[in-house]
Amino acid sequence: xxxxxxxxxxxxxxxxxxxxxxxxxxxxxxxxxxxxxxxxxxxxxxxxxxxxxxxxxxxxxxxxxxxxxxxxxxxxxxxxxxxxxxxxxxxxxxxxxxxxxxxxxxxxxxxxxxxxxxxxxxxxxxxxxxxxxxxxxxxxxxxxxxxxxxxxxxxxxxxxxxxxxxxxxxxxxxxxxxxxxxxxxxxxxxxxxxxxxxxxxxxxxxxxxxxxxxxxxxxxxxxxxxxxxxxxxxxxxxxxxxxxxxxxxxxxxxxxxxxxxxxxxxxxxxxxxxxxxxxxxxxxxxxxxxxxxxxxxxxxxxxxxxxxxxxxxxxxxxxxxxxxxxxxxxxxxxxxxxxxxxxxxxxxxxxxxxxxxxxxxxxxxxxxxxxxxxxxxxxxxxxxxxxxxxxxxxxxxxxxxxxxxxxxxxxxxxxxxxxxxxxxxxxxxxxxxxxxxxxxxxxxxxxxxxxxxxxxxxxxxxxxxxxxxxxxxxxxxxxxxxxxxxxxxxxxxxxxxxxxxxxxxxxxxxxxxxxxxxxxxxxxxxxxxxxxxxxxxxxxxxxxxxxxxxxxxxxxxxxxxxxxxxxxxxxxxxxxxxxxxxxxxxxxxxxxxxxxxxxxxxxxxxxxxxxxx
Length: 613
Ligand SMILES: *Cc1c(COP(=O)(O)O)cnc(C)c1O
Ligand SMILES: [Zn+2]
What we know:
It contains 20 helices and 21 strands. The termini are far apart. About 40% of the residues lie in helices and about 20% in strands.
């Protein structure tokens, strides 16, 4: 038998009007604001089994009595919750916060805390007889709602802004989500999802009242993991504000029920490039600050229109908490700190709480002896591009121990994430001497360039300057990476002496090339579908006068950065020979044709050498 519907009410956070869940469970039909679930704690108190609550193993489903679920035969669960709460000893020691904890929400079924909310929300969709689900998302909500809808047997339509990280898209598609990319921002997706739901009668999932109920289990778990004691501070990364207000509600309900005696202070944290809630809270505004085009590496919280701002402000005020922002550079540094010191790999959004700790301590918003819990909201695998932006590309070597020894001796470049040395900072605007190159490379990448590496770098930098370019930090890194790699690539037998290509409208591009193959000069010409294709064909004809060997090109990637970031075009070619040997050859240049020819030449020489063995 379904449970009595009277143990909770849906109330508008703004005008106070009560709604039946069959009428709306997303936004108030009168004023358009968020709804809140008010639980009858007396009823919960009678229903809960205190022994089970205190002794059963952790899991979000253990707290069913706290959720507005009527029909338990409909529960959709993938074993969410029971995420580890680590004492972050090393970071705590470094910054002077010995009772610093990190709750790693990346351990949830789809790698993000949102699964806690999806448990409740998709169960409610089934209870309310939904035929399909639709949702707007910056990526993580998409994957989570897709996974739970699939378990529930409901089709799921998902709208994400174009440019959503590929990890999140691949996950969503794999769970069977019907994914649409919108040429716009998250706010456009929200508007469209609402319309789609109204027109077709789909259940609208997202940052609404039922989802927030699921977030309460984070609070319940923290209390239990701290052996039924209450932390002083809980720091939560905020996009819509749903998670923070849900966690706060969890603490408040436990106190109302008499399980705990005090409450933690809640701190909302956001990136400076999307500080909708933080800015409004600091200004004591009633509503969020609209950010039309969020600009942050922490894409999961890049939400310009936070639907749960009012609930979030209430939580911050009621808990005597506050808000704090961090820059993208601080966020990336915190992401690396968590991974390196505590082996916690979280996406940039999940690192924001740790990024804000130094300033919170400095401003005495938190004090050194307090127990502080940071919520690392999602796993780092969700957005590998963000994490890898903190590193230089790993060097490739030939399969021999000498190259490994050499590599260990010289080391690899490290990128400092200092604020005033962003990737687009100009390092050289006129030709530097080698002393200058050595000192800048040491300062920026903790790498001492000598010998061939330095010589190679000097050549490339001089060439860039001569062509009228500035050398930015990103350029210097590419040049350094390439110079290191070049020490592992044979220079023979193929060298390019001269080339020209003609590309006239309406005719196939033609090219002429002169090469040196084992010291003898050969020339040839050819036409192709594009100038690079024509040049490679001409090169093949020229080389065929000396050798039968010719590798094939399997993949050709061109990566052009914005001109503010880098003057270089990076080219990568996957090449294979007839024996199945394969190499990935890279080169960069301001000129795409030069980069392509150099990459091809490197790949050729690597494969040719392999053939000789
Ligand atoms: C969704 C999300 C957030 C923000 O949560 P809100 O409930 O929107 O405030 C933070 N971090 C990650 C990783 C997320 O996916
Ligand atoms: Zn209202």
